Structures are given as structure tokens and as C-alpha cells.
Hints:
Blueprint: E1 5-8, E2 12-15, E3 18-23, E4 28-36, E5 42-50, E6 56-65, E7 71-78, E8 83-92
Antiparallel strand pairs: 1-2, 1-8, 2-3, 3-4, 4-5, 5-6, 6-7, 7-8
Amino acid sequence: MLRGRVERRGGDQLNGNLARLEDSCLKLTFSGEFGTTAGGTQGFFGSYELNRDGHDALAVLSTVPAGAASALTVELQDVAARVAVGPVLLHRTTVPLPAPNPC
């Protein structure tokens, strides 16, 4: 389980057992909770909405430590293992970040 908070410009957050990922260029929003499958796979399980159309797709956000203790690489995949976002490098922050650049 991730301890603390990791954030990327644009408001992505991993905080304890909860994850939120937003990609403004793709108009994608993911929300999930940490868990383990019967097969032992760990990740943040939830769903994402694409193009703000009101239709959710089941997905898993996987995390892998990236070098320093304050960084993670994340990847969002749908249930068919197709990559929706990533891999993306996230760094731990303690202060709000500036707004993201336009798409």
C-alpha cells in the first residue's frame, strides 16, 4: 500500500488506499481503491470515464516504484489489458502544483 500522497500536475492523486487520475487532454477521469485479486495482482481497481460521456469502463491502475522513494510509475489499463494512460511518472509533492499546460 502507498503511504502519503503523490500528485502530478492536473490533480492526479494517490493517497492511502484511494487513487484519482485525470488526463485533461484525453478528457479521462479514473477513480479507484487499492486491492488484491484472488490471483495476487495488486493495484487500484475502479473505473474511468472518457470524454465525460457518463459511461464508465472498469480498469486497474498499476504502480511501480521509480528510483527514488518519492516517485512512482503508473499505468491505467482497461479489463481487456489495453493501456488507456501511461506509463506516467509521478512525484511526491507537499504543495499545490501549477495548472497543467494546454493540450
